[in-house]
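Section: Multi-chain targets

For targets with more than one molecule, the full set of components is provided together so that the structure can be written out for the assembly as a whole rather than chain by chain. Components appear in the order listed by the source. The example entry contains four components.
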Amino acid sequence: MSSPRRVGSQTSRTRDQLLDCAEQLMIEKGYAHVTYRAVAARAGVTAGLVQYYFPKLDDLFIAEIRRRSEQNLDRLVALLDAHADEPLRVLWEYSRDEATAALTTEFIALGNHRPSIRAEIADVTDKVRRVQLEALAARYGTTGISLGALPPAALLFLLTGIPKLIRLEEGVGVSTTHGEAVRAFESFLDSVEPASRPKAKKPTKRAPAAKRSR
Amino acid sequence: MSSPRRVGSQTSRTRDQLLDCAEQLMIEKGYAHVTYRAVAARAGVTAGLVQYYFPKLDDLFIAEIRRRSEQNLDRLVALLDAHADEPLRVLWEYSRDEATAALTTEFIALGNHRPSIRAEIADVTDKVRRVQLEALAARYGTTGISLGALPPAALLFLLTGIPKLIRLEEGVGVSTTHGEAVRAFESFLDSVEPASRPKAKKPTKRAPAAKRSR
DNA sequence: GTCTATACGGCGATAGAC
DNA sequence: GTCTATCGCCGTATAGAC
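Its structure, encoded as tokens over all components, is:
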């Protein structure tokens, strides 16, 4: 047996710092600018070392996705727990939170033609959706109850999808009709879950808004 | 004055063929695989010639976007004209047509951090949306009439956005809740615009479904 | 106006030295 | 555990042939 390629340990502090740098680069300049050399330069190490921890560039991206999505899932579960009486509002606000939206878009684009990354995204997307559906079912049951005759799955799709769409369009510089769409949906929310608390509270300090390379 | 770089004419037949090859490559393997050398190989010419017509790679992508979106806009206008009594159904079916969806996703990802391409996408997106809004206003007026109390802009956003979302998720291999969402929305459509003709007719033969590089 | 040949530096990836 | 050398691709630029 020829020994396979050597790889740095997953618990290395260096490894975690490299992931931080990669994430920053990705937010600021897009995944195309996340290169071994660029990450290394930002972290103050050699490119070879980055490759030691992430033999393929995809390994880096996958590690990034996994780390991020675990944080996000934890946060979502905590929010749904804390406001179990108004899951719709929680999901809506959670989806509108822009902190991780820029990264998500980046990852989707990245996964579009890269099987290993696509699989990772599909995995976390499904996991999140299951949690969301459970929260809806716990509060409103599994049938299409009030909710404008919408079955829970369809409602969930709107609730989390519309903010995603808006971000996507904002990303290319389009904003037509966004305001109307948001207002319409929020007034529907108001009718189903009369606002007790206006916003899902922020769990922690987030990174400043991503600067785009315009 | 040093003469600027020379560029091939916009009416060249060769140029059009190069665009065809680039589009095929993009659908089959993603924009990352659209390279001067790859396009040239498919077209049976040298890489230098591709560069002669498209000095920067972005020039190629922009030309591709422009050509495609003009075709699509023409098609949309024709459909709306032919079925002026049921614009909702036309927009829904048009948005669900997958022929150009793979390309659209690709372009959005591409434009995410490339200003010139982003500008091009924003331009055509706005243009299309204006046409769509006009069609809605012509049939239903500009106020939020019936339509589930949704203002036209919000309705339009759902109508064209949901199919886009579904494609996006399909692209990464997620399909949970898609069926329910489509069914729910179509039954709403049925209630507003009782189906006379079930589908927006196809304008012409389309390319076979894109093979994904799984 | 069309097209070819050639060169440059940056990239992902690999094998292997320290 | 860390880093270097090397390979074959890439975008881009330029000079010049038909």
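Chain A has two domains: 8-55, 58-192.
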